[in-house]
From TrEMBL, chain A:
Gene3D superfamilies: Histidine kinase-like ATPase, C-terminal domain. CDD domains: HATPase_RsbT-like. Keywords: Kinase, Transferase. Pfam families: HATPase_c. The keyword Methyltransferase does not apply. The keyword Cell inner membrane does not apply. One of its GO terms (molecular function) is protein serine/threonine kinase activity. This is Serine/threonine-protein kinase RsbT. It comes from the Bacteria. SUPFAM superfamilies: ATPase domain of HSP90 chaperone/DNA topoisomerase II/histidine kinase (SSF55874).
TrEMBL record, chain B:
The keyword Iron-sulfur does not apply. It comes from the Bacteria. It holds the Pfam family STAS. Residues 157-268 form the STAS domain. Keywords: Phosphoprotein. This is RsbT co-antagonist protein RsbR.
């Protein structure tokens, strides 16, 4: 771990800020243009999920190292209602809101590592990592 | 604040009122000096110098009856707003008000009576409240400026341009949120009606990331245009965006998408029956359409 920062997600303007910070961090890590766009898009999805379904949350942006490879790790946490059925939530097209239902499953495909911890009433913690190639 | 003024009509308060009346010129002069020290330029100094005597009078009048407090608040709000527009920090504005304490303290010290000192505590609290009031007004004024600018930006950033007879384009730049999509959709539909266009190009070259929300907004805009009988082409899909859209699993269905605005224009021209003949000198040949 070389650097990190935590941002609060409280409104839609914060989502824009999260995207900008993640893009800056992705540049610093040296991710390719495609991978930059992917992690930024995943960050956008997860930040919006935290805002829409939990009323807000926070994200921790970390630059991580695994041997010679550098990576960008984002941890999205919220104290919302939690996800009762995680398998179901990851199914494409399934949503309890008004979106396309692709955010969670799509984000998992956009990153290299995806870890989702949630239980009803205990909030949600999603950690994603993208490694350089 | 009005309550504090009427509940404590004690000796200290009366002494302060007297001092403020008797030493008006001296206190006012000192207050101007203190305020000028924190002001940046001559113009600001003149502006403030013109306002302070008025505020001083309103403050003195506010001690005689609480209904006059609105006058004082009005003057302070004006000072605050004018300083917010000139780019002063809220601390500088509040400091201008707090400067009156320092100015009066010199008079109180010379007076030296216990009543004056007790009264100064009371006066101090009033000035603190007034300082906080300017702070609040300042923040509200700034907020207003930001909201106005955001609205202006919203207007500015969504032009609908006519590319050809019957073809309009919307070059989108920046983040597409719900509010902007609403504006884009309204403007596009309006332009379709006004120009009688049957083709619209939505160019997303300037959109940094397409997530599911942006995609959903785009799809809705295309659907709305279709309901009005217009065909939409989405252009400006860069490689990394294409990659991301596929990975996310977003399906654009039968919506025509193109890599560049030029491709989209060529497509729309072909569809509306205009043939672009490629030769050394680019010629555009119009074929009459039989209805």
């Amino acid at each position: 771990m070389t650097s990190s920062g935590e941002l609060a997600i409280g409104g839609s303007s914060d989502i824009v800020l999260v995207r900008q910070r993640v893009r800056a961090a992705a540049l610093e890590v040296g991710l390719s243009l495609v991978d930059q766009t992917k992690i930024v898009t995943a960050a956008s999805e997860l930040a919006r999920n935290a805002l829409v379904y939990a009323g807000g949350g926070r994200v921790r942006i970390e630059i991580v190292r695994n041997g010679v490879r550098m990576g960008l790790r984002l941890a999205f946490g919220d104290d919302g209602p939690g996800i009762p059925d995680i398998e179901q939530a990851l199914v494409d097209g399934w949503t309890t809101g008004t979106g396309l239902g692709l955010g969670l499953g799509g984000s998992r495909r956009l990153v290299d590592e995806f870890d989702l911890r949630s239980a009803p009433g205990e909030g949600t913690l999603i950690t994603v990592t993208k490694w350089t190639r | 604040m009005g309550v504090t003024l009427t509940v404590q009509p004690d000796a200290g308060r009366r002494r302060i009122e007297e001092l403020l009346r008797q030493n008006e010129d001296r206190v006012l002069k000192r207050w101007l000096e203190i305020t000028a020290a924190v002001s940046a330029g001559q113009a600001d100094r003149d502006d403030t110098a013109a306002r302070l005597p008025e505020i001083y009078q309103a403050l003195r009048q506010s001690f005689t009856g609480e209904e006059n407090l609105s006058d004082l608040h009005g003057l302070l709000a004006e000072l605050s707003r004018s300083r917010a527009r000139q780019g002063f920090s809220p601390a500088e504005t509040a400091n201008a008000v707090f400067g009156l304490k320092e100015a009066l303290y010199e008079v109180v010290e010379d007076d030296g009576t216990p009543e004056a000192l007790r009264g100064f505590i009371w006066f101090s609290k009033i000035i603190d409240d007034l300082g906080l009031f300017t702070f609040e007004t300042y923040a509200a004024a700034r907020e207003k400026i930001i909201i106005d600018q955001a609205e202006q930006l919203l207007e500015l950033s969504t032009p609908v341009v006519k590319l050809w007879e019957g073809i309009v384009a919307v070059p989108l730049i920046g983040t597409l949120d719900s509010a902007r999509t609403q504006v884009v959709m309204e403007k596009l539909l309006q332009a379709l009606v006004e120009t009688g266009s049957e083709h619209a190009v939505i160019d997303i070259t300037g959109v940094p990331a397409v997530d599911t929300q942006v995609a959903q907004h785009l799809l809705k805009t295309v659907m709305a245009a279709r309901l009005m009988g217009a065909e939409c082409v989405i252009s400006g899909i860069r490689p990394q965006i294409a990659h991301t859209i596929v990975t996310l699993g977003i399906e654009f269905g039968d919506i025509v998408t193109k890599a560049s605005l030029a491709d989209a224009l060529a497509h729309a021209l072909r569809r509306s029956g205009v043939e672009v003949a490629g030769s050394r000198r680019t010629r555009v040949a119009l074929r009459t359409e039989e209805a």
